[in-house]
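We emphasize that the prediction below concerns an isolated chain of 73 residues; any contacts that depend on oligomerization or on bound cofactors are therefore not represented. The input was used exactly as deposited, without trimming of termini.
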Amino acid sequence: MATMFGFIKNRNGQAAVANRIFETRLYNYYLSAADMQDTDIYKASQRDRSQFLIDGHLNMRRVLEKIATCTVG
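Result of the prediction step, given as a token string:
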């Protein structure tokens, strides 16, 4: 279903998130699950998350800069 809706794509025989927007949404969804909150991955994501927020608001310029620096294969 994820492929049908365009969330993921086949990259060399492996599932890959189709774009950065879906990646971010899926990343946030899975990290918000209660069982993930005690993991090292969750703690690292919380530290990195602050780079996109200024006074509680999304820093869209930073988001776009980050997307622009990513290479899409």
